[in-house]
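Encode chain A's predicted structure.
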Amino acid sequence: MIVPTQTEFHNAMQALPLVSVDWVVVDVDGRVLTGWRENAPARHCWFTPGGRIRKGEPLQAALARVAAVELGVDDATAQAWAGRARLMGVWDHFYPDSAFCANTPTHYVNLPHCLVLDAAESVVLKLALPGKLQAVDGPQAAYLAQHGAWRWLSPAEDAAHEQPAHAYVQPYLRWVAELIQRSVR
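Encoded structure for chain A:
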């Protein structure tokens, strides 16, 4: 797997779309996990956890890595979840800025994956998330600083909230609501 330098990454962003994964994690109450984004793109918005796929990194490995880093779960849990997650589709996300430059627009080809947690998994994740907000040193510090807070929300709660989720999260919420309706029938 190749991890580019900041300059290489910036040059690539100027010329090419990036491929990313989002985790659309659903708890036992049908609510979706969102984090308050502290960095660009989508700064100061509620968004699902996610990250870029690295060159040479298989999709399943990227899903597991992002789950471990962004959700704070151990590697075995992250790998198990990556194996169970369901691809929701493919979406384009266009932003006027990027993680490294306010003047460089970003285009992501996003592959969101839905994971419906059981009761025990919901507890594990809810215990892992508060620790993500503590100060951390080392290479994971930048990832952990991405989300200043977490919240679980349903589509109805989001529509009534004074700070609704980012527009790119809205289709995910509708997708989950339809999934829940189908499973109730």
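The helical segments are 6-15, 59-71, 75-84, 119-131, 141-144, 155-160, 170-184.
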